[in-house]
Write a structure and sequence with these properties.
By secondary structure, this protein is of the alpha+beta class. The chain is about 15% helix and about 25% strand.
Length: about 800
Amino acid sequence: MRIISRLFLLLLAVMGLGLAIGGGWLLSLGGSPYYLIAGLAWLLAAWLLWRRRRSGALVTAAVAVLTVPWALWESGADFWALFPRLMAPLAVAALALWLVPVGPSLARPRRWRWGGTVFALLFAIGFGMAFMPHGEIKVGTEQAYKLPSGNNEPVNWSAYGRTNAGLRDAPFNQINRDNVSQLKLAWSYRTGDVKPGVDQNTPLQIGDTVYSCTRNDKIIALDADTGQPRWTFDPEAKSPFWQRCRGLGYYRADAPAAAPAGAASSVSTASAQAAAAPEGGVCRDRIVQTTIDARLIELDARTGKLCEDFGNQGIVALSENMGPVKPGFYFQTSAPLVARDLIVIGGWVVDNQMRGEPSGVIRAFSARTGELVWAWDLGNPAITRLPPEGESYTRGTPNMWTTAAYDDKLGLIYAPLGNATPDYYGPGRPEHSEEYASSLVALDVATGRPRWKFQTVHHDIWDYDLPSQPALIDLPDGQGGSTPAVLQTTKRGQLFLLNRATGKPLADVAEQPVTQNGAVPEQKLSPTQPYSVGMPTIGVERLTEHRMWGATMFDQLMCRIEFRQMRYDGDFTPPGLVRAIEHPGNVGGLNWGSVSVDTANQRVFLNDIRVPSVFQLVPRDEYPEFAKKYPTVSDGHGPSAQLGTPYGMYTNIWFSKIGVPCVQPPFGTLTAIDLKTRKIAWQVPAGTAEQLGPLGVKMGLPMPIGMPSYAGTLATQGGLVFFAGTQDFYLRAYDAETGKEVWKAPLPVGSSATPMTYVSPKTGKQYVVISAGGAAYSKQIGDYVLAFALP
């Protein structure tokens, strides 16, 4: 016991010294004096106890007791804020009173042991409470919910968001709140693709077949009831980075159709003849694929064979007319949009490497022939199809890397745009880039010409591009009719609700002043930015030193020091020569998963990420040496050259030294928003820390801390919301009314994909399907497609 007590005192001295040094550093930066005081007190306690003086144990008890009012003053009753502040002082006081013999007789008085027991009990209570949800927002009584009346007739999941409205809603209620607890694995399939990349695929379902794509673009057609493969197709696509397939498209060539108005002259007679309905059913039903090496492919949905009357033997080269394209600098990761007889394509452009990267042109190809019908080159509106001979589409324009939505009645395609590269340096950008960056643009389906636009960020130098497919929602107008609305989520955590016919806000938007400090001298900043004040904002509370966090008080202290060392002036803190905090970070906020919608209750479900980024501009002559300090990254999510500008760039997600986010939990939530009241109906932490731990060591502790969440949600008329994009390895179902978790199933690995559901036309059974290829940032990857059903 004496050896243990001596080791404890050495540890106490080391902890006290670390707190004193770090606390002094923090105080010199204008931060809290607590850590310096606590560190000195622990050093004093260690010295006194080493000399067997009882007062040393009393000092540790005093630190624990006095930490409580300080912690409450800083953070209120927020459990996760209190956790790192209180746990270590409670543990130290308990051990000091239990372990260390004091006085001439080396005895431990009984009252001291009782005192140690009290502190130990408080520690145990605090640790136990870490396994309970905290910070939930509960449903309000003013937000009435009525269970929808479902229809279990089979209907295809024929587009990335089920339909082109992007609602991720299913009319089925066979699986519902009463029986979801009985849901079991019905079948599974392994694709065999465990090459580098991320599985973010939401499968399609057409009739009795499920169509799935892998991270490297292999397509598998599966029997909807058994999961047995019917055919596979491997385009042998390759990219040096960013390998992923979020989804496929589907087109049915039932009958000949006229070319879209305004485009007839661009479709040849031969093409029109080729557009006749296929004979014998060959390529009547077509799977539409875009690849990570910039190809557009159509396959016969029944056989998996290339549709030879499409493009060049089934393939269109999307790199044509784009000018020089370095490997990996332009391709498609998101699902194509199939609208009428058109396939509408944008493209992912590598982030932040250089000026003049490939164009962000949006193009529409004939779904029957593969011929180009129209192009929207926002840098040169005179180009309506092909660029002039010897030229390319305008390089370096904002691009659409996510999936568009489409309203057939209005004839409008809703294209969410990013910003022009380089992402973090604005001088020299052309006027067209400033006009369209980070904007939602409505394009005429027949001509590709813009009808309206709405900009969500002015002069975007934060990589706040629009990441998600818009949701097209019909809002009751109170007079028996409806108003056509479009809901666009953003990395900023702002939700913009617009009239989808006109682009005018349906929920108030206000221009508010933002900081003008910290940018390099030549950097232009917008004095105001648009805020969607008429809708809830998700996960964007202003950061302060008090809101810095850690798994322990020690890494919390380091995060507080880092916060004080960096620039942060609230929203839109600009990148400059001093490292700065971007909050929300450039991964969100709200990212590519989009939303799901309970249309009967006018309720929207979404998931978010609450981990800031840090960024810094580095002068060109200093950049080569600077970049040597960091692992080589070529996709813009690390040190980036920003060639053609005076600066290189560093950006990354902000973690503590032990790999834990530096801001208070939750790091991600699942939220329901009531569109009738424009308020949050409920909000719960997304997932647990079961698969995570400090320094990347898996701790196996299922604390519902709410982890950064990826992919998106699925809503059904069974009163359920399905979600799997957490950092632990589960597919979960939540009660759509309250947010209560009502079911979960373990997955072999995590998932970064959005679930989908269908009713089999053969058996009438409802299935919920998820791709499980690995959670975001997890080293454990897989190749699973899993289907769940009632027994």
